[in-house]
Amino acid sequence: MTGAGTSPRRAGRRRRRPFSVEARLAEHVDRLADEHPPIPVDSADYSMARPELLAERFGPVLTYMSRVELEVERNVLELNILLPDPPAVDRHFYADVWLPQETHHGLLLDRLQSLAGLPPADPDLTKVDFSYRLLGSLGRWSAVQDVSRMLYYLTGVATEQSAILAYNKLHQGLLELGERAVAATIVAPIRRQEPGHFAYYKIAAQGLWTELASWQKWLVRTLRRHTFEPVGAYTKKQWAEFGAVMHHLGITAEGGGGLTRYAQQIGRVELELLWAQKQGLRVPAYVVNSLKSAARLAAAERSVSPSK
Ligand SMILES: [Fe+2]
Ligand SMILES: [Fe+2]
């Protein structure tokens, strides 16, 4: 953003950040760009055996995932505000590689849901929450920006892990419905791109965590505990919608065990980094409690309106 490669602040940060992490990230982003160009929307086979049944079974999943994928456009605006002076490799990743890939995921899912007779996606592409502006202005101090960056990486890890698991379940569910074409040409190519995003955030989070001072680690733990939310759930309505996604993917149908396993997978990396000192802890409580709240909200809505 600044191109200020010679400023003392950037030079200092470069010295602090282990070269191996920076180099690994740069190499990883180049490989993602080479091997995973955005999936052309016209490359997919949208033919469906029973579109009404597909919409009934997986409509809430398609609606939610298409919105979240398309809202990456707003997420990039948020990142530009949150991180006034990020490492160049982060900006290259989110602006040049991650954004176009995710946007195409959203476009593919949106086309599919329209063809299945569902309403088009309605993403919010512009409304940036005030908290980003606040943290962004504090981020002029690089020590504070590092806390924000850590939270960004942790959110990325949890978000991408949620997506991987959701697309695995969706793929399996579509095959069980006999919808081979859309499973093979839409969901399978999308889910092949998500692990690369997850790996980026994991490498970045592990690298940065070792560089943080004790007070920064404390602040990250505290903020994370109080701000964790399921991917794409910013309002109570969206929390309930996320609960419906878990329901339609069969995650909550497996009883409490399915939800706990899902939470463990989403929270594994931050459990190992942030909470390593808590012997015996299997999942951060705020992760599993958030998913339970979402499931409860969705169950309450289903009791009023059983089609949800
Ligand atoms: Fe995606
Ligand atoms: Fe992703």
What binds here, in terms of ligands, is: fe (ii) ion
Q: Sketch the topology as an H/E string, one letter per element.
A: HHHHHHHHHHHH
CATH architecture identity? Orthogonal Bundle
- Rounded average pLDDT: 92
N- and C-termini, Cα separation = 44 Å
> How can the largest sheet be summarized?
none
**Strand elements, count:** 0
Secondary-structure class: mainly alpha
Q: Which stretches of 5+ consecutive residues score pLDDT under 50? A: 1-12
CATH C-level class is Mainly Alpha
What is the CATH topology classification name?
A: Ribonucleotide Reductase, subunit A
Oligomer: single chain
Radius of gyration computed on alpha carbons: 20 Å
Helix fraction bin: over 70%
Morphology call: globular
Number of domains: 1
Number of helices: 12
Structure description:
The protein has 308 residues and is mostly helical. The chain has a single domain (40-304), classed as Ribonucleotide Reductase, subunit A. It is 73% helix and 0% strand. The chain is built from twelve helices and no strands. The protein is globular and about 55 Å long. The termini are far apart. Bound molecules: fe (ii) ion (2 copies). One fe (ii) ion is lined by residues 69, 102, 105, 163, 190, 194.
Topology of helices and strands:
Blueprint: H1 8-16, H2 19-35, H3 51-70, H4 72-82, H5 88-115, H6 130-138, H7 142-176, H8 180-209, H9 214-227, H10 236-248, H11 256-274, H12 285-304
